[in-house]
Write a structure and sequence with these properties.
Distance between the termini: 12 Å
Structural class: mainly alpha
Oligomer: single chain
Number of helices: 19
Radius of gyration: 21 Å
Number of strands: 2
Helix content: over 70%
Strand order of the largest sheet: 1-2
Shape: globular
Strand content: under 5%
Length: 479
């Protein structure tokens, strides 16, 4: 990488997002409570401008760092920017359907932007202090959003999310402190040079604590306990956010850590790639086994996102041993984000359909919506030609290339097993008879669920389009 400086333009997408959040908060204080849509429009404009800025910056500038190496601007950061900002656009559409006319509608838009900004900072952090600050920025808006509805379920979701997040946040800060003591530095390049000669026990404890915090943000074992309850209790658009934006940022941060300080450590005492591989195996297996018996569709998607975190950890574990790892992770994150948002968009479109049986007979009344659900759920399994299929293929290839064929075999077995619980949801919708979707509770007229319906269609088509364009996209991600 070339040297960095204190140039705010290097962080233009993040600056646009943070600036829009601040301006939107001020604007919302002056707008009538029943006409706060300009704040949402401003947020969408900031996301679009951020995507354009990220793409232009990637095309014109070589990989670099900013602010004395504290923030990296490279292929990992650029991809995370496009994925997170694109996902934020979809989330804003879902939020419009859920919060239009709400007296705190502005706060909804602002918190979504701040959560996205935290995810972006996580993805680009190349310094432990930046990582710690990004962790907090990615967490606090999520706590507020989880309890935004102020109902019993939302309050419980927010409390559990906050307690686990606060505890593992302290653990992460402890890891930062120990690594600073061991390496006398906080920047990743300096740590990579210093940690091999530092006391082994100090380095090991510090890195384990750091990994624990990032695994919490990605929803992976052992920091996964909050996911089912938070997703089930939070409003559906918030559940979509919690399972998408923090995960993208945390996985990029984990990859940067694995390819940086961890890659320079000897594996004689602690085999770090093997440890990450075991965590990946445990995460995908636990998520799949727990999802088998779920009847609540939100809880099913919660365990699904845990299992997906396991697959996504495979290229992270291979960061130092396979050249396929970077493009596998980045492509898979993009495919997962758009497909997961599509599944949640269907849930948002049918707010009263909480259980699998509520979807019975839906194909007879809303065939296009069931088609979107079919694409997204089979996409999460990894069915061609969806994006997740190619993402899994790349991840499994990285595992074999890195010498972990057993992990690839276990991932294939888990993928086949996951088909069962997705089909448990699809079968009643496609083949069942009933009046699901016909009553007023599940209506899809010009009411508040219309943006969710359009989002479901757009994300399903996006998952197919990204899968079909996989070759050129993967070529770009190698840069």
């Amino acid at each position: 990488m070339t040297g960095g400086d204190e140039n705010p333009l290097a962080l233009l997408p993040e600056v646009l997002l943070a600036g829009s959040a601040v301006i939107g908060l001020l604007l919302g204080a002056w707008l009538p409570r029943d006409r706060q849509w300009p704040v949402g429009l401003l947020a969408a404009g900031a996301c679009l401008a951020g995507v354009v800025a990220a793409a232009v910056q990637a095309g014109l500038a070589a990989p670099t760092t900013a602010f004395d190496g504290a923030f990296a601007v490279d292929a990992v950061t650029t991809t995370a920017r496009i994925v997170v900002l694109g996902a934020s656009l979809a989330l804003l559409a879902l939020v419009v359907g859920a919060s239009r006319g709400h007296r705190r509608e502005t706060e909804y838009y602002v918190l979504v932007q701040l959560a996205a900004c935290g995810a972006l900072m996580l993805a680009g952090a190349a310094d432990l202090l930046t990582l710690a600050a990004a962790y907090l920025l990615a967490s606090v808006p999520g706590y507020a959003l989880a309890g935004f509805a102020r109902d019993v379920g939302g309050t419980e979701a927010a409390l559990k999310y906050f307690v686990v997040g606060a505890f593992l946040g302290v653990v992460l800060l402890t890891g930062v402190t120990l690594l600073l003591a061991a390496g006398r530095a906080t920047g990743y390049p300096a740590l990579r040079e210093a940690l091999p000669d530092a006391p082994g026990a100090l380095v090991t404890v510090g890195l384990v604590a750091l990994l624990a915090g990032l695994l919490f943000k990605s929803g992976a074992v052992p920091g996964h306990f909050w996911v089912p309850d938070a997703v089930q209790g939070a409003p559906p658009p918030v559940a979509a956010l919690l399972t998408t934006l923090p995960k993208a940022g945390a996985l990029a941060a984990l990859f940067r850590l694995a390819a940086g300080p961890l890659a320079g450590l000897p594996t004689a005492s602690v085999p770090w790639p093997g440890l990450l591989a075991v965590l990946a195996a445990a995460t995908m297996t636990l998520g799949n086994l727990a999802a088998f018996f779920q009847d609540d569709v939100r809880r099913l998607l919660a365990y699904s996102t845990i299992s997906q975190a396991g697959y996504l950890l495979i290229p992270v574990a291979m960061a130092g041993s396979s050249e396929l790892s970077q493009r596998a992770l980045l492509y898979y994150v993009a495919g997962y984000a758009i497909t997961n948002l599509g599944a949640f968009a269907v849930v948002c479109a049918l707010p009263d359909a909480r259980r699998i049986r509520d979807y019975r007979g839906l194909a007879g009344h809303r065939p296009a919506l069931v088609g979107a659900l079919l694409v997204c759920l089979l996409g999460l399994v990894g069915t061609p030609p969806t994006a997740v299929f190619l993402g899994k293929l790349e991840a499994f290839g990285a595992a074999v290339d890195g010498g972990y064929a057993w992990l690839a075999a276990l991932a294939v077995a888990n993928t086949v097993a996951s088909l069962f619980y997705y089909l448990r949801w699809l079968a009643p919708a496609l083949l069942g008879r009933g009046r699901a979707g016909a009553g007023p509770g599940l209506g899809l007229g010009p009411g508040p669920v219309r943006p969710a319906v359009l989002t479901a269609y757009a994300t399903a088509l996006g998952s197919l389009a990204l899968g079909l364009a996989g070759g050129p996209v993967l070529a770009l991600l190698d840069g």
